[in-house]
Amino acid sequence: MKLFAAALLIAAPVYASAGPYTLFAGNNVNLEQGTRVTGNVEAGGIVNAKYQSTVKGNVQANGAVNIEQAAVVNGNIESAGKVHMKYQSTATGKVSTSTTDNVAVTLEQGSVVGNVHHNTGTKLTANWGSSYVSDIVGPVSGPALDVLPGATAFSAGTTLFQLNASQTGALGKGQYGKINLGFDSTLTLSAGSYYFDSLEIGGDGKLIFDLAGGAINLYIKNNVSIGQNFEFETINGSASSIYTETLGNYDLGINGEWYGTLFGSGANSNLHFNQNSTIGGTFMARNNIQLDVGSVVTGLPSQPDKATPGNEIPLPGTFALMGLGLLALAGSRRRK
Question: Are 220 and 303 contained in the same domain?
Answer without folding.
Answer: yes
